[in-house]
Design brief:
By secondary structure, this protein is mainly alpha-helical. The protein has two domains: 59 residues, Arc Repressor Mutant, subunit A; 118 residues, Tetracycline Repressor, domain 2 (Orthogonal Bundle), CATH 1.10.357. 69% of the residues lie in helices and 0% in strands. The chain has nine helices and no strands. Helix 4 packs parallel to helix 7 and helix 5 runs antiparallel to helix 9. The radius of gyration is 19 Å and the shape is elongated. InterPro entries: Homeodomain-like_sf, HTH-type_TetR-like_transc_reg, HTH_TetR, Tet_transcr_reg_TetR-rel_C_sf, TetR_C. Keywords: DNA-binding, Transcription, Transcription regulation. This is TetR/AcrR family transcriptional regulator.
Length: 209
């Protein structure tokens, strides 16, 4: 991914560095992700992250400023690095591709733990919540055209809220992750996609006038 430098007014996560700056950012974000996955949001400390990433503490404080600034940038980077949407030619196929990607991410030991930590932090930290909302806004926006294309093909009614369909497809997987000890298997991902597609075809997500 090619990155360029943003202006001085940019907040955490908005700069797009190159060269050494990119390597520093990658090392710091990797260290932050490791701590989140292993110990949770409460144990994030900028000085510790700098030590783990083997970069200057001053650099970390100057660039990210706070733990929530660092988490914001981490989620931005994850959104940017996420696999782009898959177009299969059918709504169900596209939604299964989406839920399959979500399942693999959440079932991954490191990624699943990281998301649990950020979701937990978002319940009590407004800035962490804002960062999490931003991450999902990017991912939902990426996949929404699948539903819009389905509407154009006549698979779902006109006026179907594409963003709501995408959220509905992955929601059961997050519920399963956060409220049960059941495995996140392919069958669960396929059921979630099938249910969302059926509801969309039935008009459940048509926007109200």
């Amino acid at each position: 991914m090619e990155l360029t430098e943003a202006g001085p007014e940019a907040g955490p996560g908005t700069t797009r560095p190159g060269g050494r700056t990119a390597r520093v950012r990658a090392a710091v974000l990797r260290a932050a992700g490791d701590v989140l996955a292993e110990q949770g949001f409460a144990h994030l400390d900028l000085a510790d992250i700098a030590r783990r990433a083997e970069v200057g503490k001053t650099t970390v404080y100057r660039r990210w400023g706070s733990v929530t600034g660092l988490v914001t940038d981490l989620l931005l980077d994850m959104a940017q690095q996420s696999v782009p949407r898959t177009e299969t030619g059918s709504l169900l196929g596209d939604l299964k591709a989406n839920t399959g990607l979500v399942r693999r991410t959440l079932a991954d030991p490191r990624q699943g733990a990281l998301f649990k930590a950020v979701i937990a932090a978002a319940t009590c930290d407004p800035k962490a919540a804002e960062a999490l909302h931003g991450f999902y806004a990017v991912r939902v926006e990426e996949w929404a055209p699948c539903v819009e294309q389905a509407a154009a093909r006549g698979e779902v009614p006109g006026g179907t809220d594409a963003h709501e369909v995408i959220r509905a497809a992955s929601a059961p997987l997050y519920y399963r992750l956060l409220t049960t000890a059941l495995p996140l298997d392919e069958a669960a991902a396929d059921r979630a996609a099938t249910a969302a597609a059926a509801a969309a075809r039935a008009g459940a997500y048509v926007r109200e006038a």
